[in-house]
Structures are given as structure tokens and as C-alpha cells.
């Protein structure tokens, strides 16, 4: 009986040992919680930054793809010799392209990409409107009702546009021209510092002449008539070459 009582007294932990083990476990858990909290904050910032860059890349690609698909279509009612609808400014651009979407047919739509305010931050928004002729002399952007606004680029990025014709000279605006710009440059800046970023890009507009210029008699085409009279040399030659290439 005495041997059993002595062995039972020496088995297990004392209160001091249990308290020491509990304190050590508390210190270890506190250290792990501190490290995890710091790691989670950095991970969240990195994830948000990567997501922001990915969304920006998708929005920039959508903007450049839409600009490349601009078509040389006049919106003036009954004015065959009017220039195409392409109103380019530094912070906005309006043009005509083929409508896209699950319910869209082969109809045309007018697309407007412009900077606006979302609270106190600038955002680049894409809007569209059905293509309808407007009265002669009226400004197209004032006659069209744009809807389906979608934010394509958000802060901290800002986007500005510039335009170049066949002379390869960049301009901040493009209004009232008889032809579409040859290229559009999309400059990306940091909204806080206004520093131009390396992700800036440019895109070529595929349409150079209207579809009617592929007809055998294309006297009303911009540049074709002037080429027959020997005027507008370099730019005209490029347009005629593009026309003949399309016809082939």
C-alpha cells in the first residue's frame, strides 16, 4: 500500500510546471499572431495591387481594341461628302464602330470614352449610343443619348489621348477631319504625380477609307479625287494603296 501511494504522488505535473507550460504556450501564440498579422497585411496589399494592375490592363486593352475598330462613317443626314464621326480630345474620344454584345446585330453604334468624376477621383468611362443620323451642322455628341456606362480605368491611373494622321505628327485634338486618324496614342499617367508611365501605348486604326471606295467608281472618296488631279501627294498615295489593297 505504501509503494502505490508514493508512485501516485510522483506521477503527473505540478501546478508550477503547468503554469510555466501555459505561459510558454501563450508567448508562442502571441508571437505567431504578430507575425501572421504583419504577413496578412502585406499579402492583402500585394493582392490588391496585383488585382488593380490586372483590371487596368484589361481596361486599357478594351480601350485600344475599341479605337482600332473605329469605322469611317459619316453621321450627317444626307451629306455624302461629310467627314467621319470622330471627335478626339485630350480626355475624351467619340467614334463609330460595329456594335458588340450578346443582343447586338450588325448595326453600328457610337462609342464615347471619356474621363469623368467618381466622387473625388477621376475615372475613364465607356458609353455607347445607337447610330442614328443627325441634322446637318449639329454636333453629334449633343444629339446622341449615351448609356451603358462602364468604368474601364480607375485611379490611380489617368489616361489621355493624342492623334496622328498620315503626316505622323501627334495632335491633342482631332475634329472635323475628312479622314480618321492613322493612329491614336494612349498615354497613362499616375494620378498623384502626373508622371507618364511605361505602360502607355498606341494603336493603329484599321479603317482608312469608307467601304464605298472599293467600288469601281469612287469619285466621292476622300483622297481619291485629289489623287487624280495630282494633289495631296504622299497622303493620297497611301490612301489609294490601301484602297486597292482592300479591293484585292
Describe this structure in words.
There is one protein chain. The longest helix is centred in the N-terminal third of the chain and has 54 residues, at 15-68. The chain has 2 domains: 57-207, no CATH class; 209-248, no CATH class. The protein is built from 5 helices and 9 strands. The radius of gyration is 32 Å and the shape is elongated. It has 248 residues and is α+β, with helices and mostly antiparallel strands.
Question: What is shown here, in short?
Answer:
This protein has two domains: 151 residues, no CATH class; 40 residues, no CATH class. By secondary structure, the protein is an alpha+beta fold.
Topology:
Blueprint lengths: L1 H9 L4 H54 L17 E3 L3 E7 L9 E11 L2 E10 L9 H4 L3 E7 L3 E8 L5 E2 L11 E8 L10 E4 L19 H5 L4 H15 L1
Antiparallel strand pairs: 1-2, 2-3, 3-4, 4-5, 6-7, 6-8, 8-9
